[in-house]
Specification:
Radius of gyration: 22 Å
CATH architecture of the largest domain: 3-Layer(aba) Sandwich
CATH superfamily of the largest domain: SPOUT methyltransferase, trefoil knot domain
CATH class of the largest domain: Alpha Beta
Strand content: 15-25%
Number of domains: 2
Low-confidence stretches: none
Distance between the termini: 33 Å
Mean pLDDT: 93
Length: about 220
């Protein structure tokens, strides 16, 4: 899988992609991930990437020209399945979309910034808009990191035990059941007895019942 991210603040993405599962996936060649500074595609001495809105609204708007050059340049090198824009008014990101993205060969993610981007970018260059929640961030970099993390961990070989992803919350529209580890008793707090008996069928039933109960109590909308 190939992911190219366009941003005006590439430094914000250095840490999320330099550790843990994403770092290992990159090292194994499971994913190619490159962050591009949109200013590298701007012209003029100051390499401006933003300008005032014609509508007179407060705040600066990301210009179409450097974004167009960046996307055109990337597309000249390889094919992409999606060009994604991280936007608060996009489709709400969930596990189903993470699963879908993990099956693609290549995606571009454009991180919004300032007051937004020239709408012509959204009309003519973007194929999908994604939001990670109903709130506004300073920029789309954190959203891009979330999207990448959720998708990359699903790639074959990214996790030490690939089956663990199948039991994640939301994979079957249920929250995951509680999990415990040693010691079996701490400070008088005990692990449920059924988990200590070694009856796999009974444990599976218990986990399913717990998932249904927790989902109904905490996230009833999923049911």
């Amino acid at each position: 899988m190939r992911i190219d991210i366009l941003t005006v603040v590439p430094e914000l993405l250095e840490s999320p992609f330099a550790h843990s599962i994403i770092r290992r996936a990159k090292a194994k060649g499971i994913v190619e991930l490159e962050v591009h500074n949109i200013r590298d595609y701007a012209t003029g001495k100051r390499r401006h990437v933003d300008d005032y809105a014609f509508s007179g609204d407060a705040g600066m708007v990301m210009m179409i020209e450097p974004v167009y050059r960046a996307i055109t340049e990337l597309k000249s090198r390889r094919a992409y399945d999606e060009v994604i824009y991280t936007s608060p008014d996009g489709e709400l990101f969930g596990q189903k979309e993470a699963n879908r993205l993990s099956t693609l060969d290549g995606i571009i993610i454009l991180c919004g910034h300032y007051k937004g981007i020239d709408h012509r970018i959204r009309e003519h260059l973007i194929t999908r808009e994604i939001s990670i929640g109903d709130y506004v961030l300073t920029g789309g970099e954190l959203a891009a990191a979330v999207i990448c993390d959720a998708a990359i961990r699903l790639l074959p070989g990214a996790l030490g035990d690939e089956s663990s992803a199948l039991s994640d919350s939301f994979q079957d529209n249920l929250l995951a059941p509680p999990v415990y580890t040693r010691p079996a008793e701490f400070n008088g707090w005990k692990v449920p007895e059924i988990l200590l008996q070694g009856n796999a069928a009974a444990i599976d039933r218990w986990k399913f019942e717990q998932s249904v109960e927790r989902t109904g109590r905490l996230r009833p909308g999923l049911l």
